[in-house]
Recover the amino acids of this structure.
């Protein structure tokens, strides 16, 4: 019997959990939904353990159907080359592995090689997506693959059953209420629930003040992370995972770093989601709830161009949501957000409708994993 | 070595042992301060063209190509023969002549720049301007002297260009080889 093709995903953890978050989801999805075997090479197992507590700090293990391997500095030259190789997020494959790929190519068939790039809504991405890049030393062809928000890109990570699972969770409000109660939130009619996952941002002070003075109760759930530093600075506190605080209308709860599946439940349960980077950002799209994105900051404020490109794409599909856009821009420029928050939340119903329209649009095209598989089959 | 972000139009890089001329290089910023360089490349051995992205930190071996001045000597079907200042002969097929083919004629004295890879002539570039005789053109009927009205005219090798209406058969004209456009009537 022929063995299913082997896929290797190489991931270097740069900082935070975006790179490993995306790679781990992709690996799990490929293993669960495609007739392939998946091996994930990762240089920081602790980062994976934070996302997936069942992970152990050992060189090789099987997790959720994925063969997880430590990518050490001394890469074993005898590792068998996979049929499909993904180098994720600007990492570079070990030189010994590339040599083995060239040998495999010479013996035929050549391994398929993808460079999986960062997510961007900019139009230049469409002009590069799917183009082949011959490796300077070996001539091995590598396809540049860009996740994105249009038919001309590789789409977004979305498990086959994700939206059905989400809908089942949301069908009966008691389910979300129960899940939130487990986190310490007992929401009442007319209250607002917010998830807050972000990098450090001094603008949080203006939001916390606005939420304290709100006319309705606000529950803000903060998964442990970098924004906690800014919260503690703004409130002169030393909050940590498990702590909670009541400040006027605001109930602030600090959650431990959440398992990926639980993070989805958090996004589904909340009325507004503050997300950051790439992984939580993509998941917030599938939640179909109003979101405020904090993009990864880059030199020369290039991230603001990327932010505007995303806002423009969203506006083209779901109509102008100027108040939400203004809030997102203020949040990303670390400006006082109180007025923008007030405007956005006053228009919450419309914001919610537009979020659903955007989600519906994104659901029209194939997910990233399926597109990778399809692209590989097509280019053979 | 060059990195992807250092690539510029006009550079020649080695990809899998072959020389590729960079015709265009556009850099776009990706995530986390990385970048993607989209290039238009021409293979200097077989002339094939491709659009290819690279990462900004991909590394390339630079190729320094030898260049020599040569002049056209004669046509030895199917190749064109050129000589350098030391009367060494080099051959190039019509497909590799590029735009120079439009201006090739017996007895031409234009000094061209030849590019060599592995001691083999792989391309040739004519001077920026060449002077050629018009062997046929319809006579001017409008009496235009401004030079704005254009008409077709034929060179001795059969190549046709647009010239000013006042240019006549037997005139010599200056042609910009980079654009293929007529520049002026040559002064005697």
């Amino acid at each position: 019997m022929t063995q299913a093709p082997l896929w290797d995903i190489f991931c270097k953890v740069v900082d935070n959990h975006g790179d490993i978050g995306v790679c781990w989801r992709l690996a799990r999805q490929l293993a669960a939904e495609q007739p392939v075997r998946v091996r994930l090479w990762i240089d920081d197992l602790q980062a994976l353990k934070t996302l997936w507590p069942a992970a152990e700090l050992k060189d090789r293990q099987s997790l959720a159907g994925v063969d997880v391997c430590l990518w050490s500095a001394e890469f074993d030259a005898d590792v068998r080359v996979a049929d499909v190789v993904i180098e994720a997020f600007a990492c570079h494959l070990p030189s010994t592995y590339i040599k083995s790929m060239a040998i495999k190519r010479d013996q035929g068939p050549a391994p398929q090689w993808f460079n999986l790039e960062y997510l961007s809504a900019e139009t230049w991405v469409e002009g590069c997506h799917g183009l082949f890049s011959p490796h300077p030393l070996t001539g091995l062809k590598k396809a540049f693959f860009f996740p994105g928000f249009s038919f001309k890109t590789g789409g977004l990570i979305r498990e086959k059953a994700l939206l059905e699972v989400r809908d089942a969770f949301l069908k009966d409000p008691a389910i979300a209420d129960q899940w939130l109660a487990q986190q310490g939130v007992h929401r009442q009619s007319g209250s607002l629930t917010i998830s807050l996952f972000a990098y450090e941002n001094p603008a949080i002070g203006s939001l916390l003040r606005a939420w304290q003075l709100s006319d309705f109760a606000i529950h803000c759930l903060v998964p442990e992370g970098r924004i906690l530093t800014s919260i503690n600075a703004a409130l002169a506190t030393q909050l940590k995972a498990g702590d909670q605080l009541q400040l006027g209308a605001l109930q602030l709860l600090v959650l431990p770093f959440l398992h990926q599946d639980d993070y989805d439940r958090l996004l589904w349960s909340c009325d507004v989601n503050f997300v950051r980077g790439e992984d939580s950002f993509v998941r917030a799209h599938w939640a179909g709830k109003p979101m405020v994105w904090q993009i990864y900051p880059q030199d020369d404020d290039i991230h603001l161009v990327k932010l505007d490109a995303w806002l423009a794409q969203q506006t083209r599909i779901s109509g102008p949501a100027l108040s939400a856009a203004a809030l997102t821009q203020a949040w990303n420029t670390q400006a006082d957000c109180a007025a923008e928050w007030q405007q956005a939340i006053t228009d919450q119903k419309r914001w919610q409708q537009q979020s659903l329209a955007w989600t519906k649009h994104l659901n029209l095209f194939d997910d990233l994993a399926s597109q990778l598989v399809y692209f590989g089959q097509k280019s053979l | 070595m060059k990195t992807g972000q250092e690539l510029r139009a006009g550079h020649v890089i080695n990809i899998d042992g072959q020389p590729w001329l960079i015709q265009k290089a556009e850099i776009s910023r990706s995530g986390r301060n990385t970048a993607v360089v989209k290039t238009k490349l021409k293979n200097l051995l077989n002339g094939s063209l491709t659009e290819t992205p690279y990462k900004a930190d991909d590394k390339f071996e630079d190729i320094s190509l030898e260049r020599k001045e040569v002049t056209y000597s004669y046509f030895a079907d199917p190749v064109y023969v050129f000589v350098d200042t030391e009367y060494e002969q080099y051959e190039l097929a019509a497909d590799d002549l590029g735009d120079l083919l439009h201006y090739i004629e017996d007895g031409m004295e234009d000094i061209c720049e030849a590019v060599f890879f592995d001691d083999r002539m792989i391309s040739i570039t004519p001077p920026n301007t060449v002077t050629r005789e018009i062997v046929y053109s319809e006579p001017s009927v409008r009496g235009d002297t401004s030079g704005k009205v254009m008409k077709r005219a034929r060179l001795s090798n059969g190549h046709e260009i647009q010239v000013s209406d006042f240019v006549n058969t037997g005139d010599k004209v200056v042609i910009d080889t980079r654009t293929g456009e007529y520049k002026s009537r040559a002064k005697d």
Summary: The two ends of chain B are 49 Å apart (CA to CA). Chain B touches chain A at residues 13-17, 26, 28-34, 36, 38, 51-55, 57-61 (CB under 8 Å).
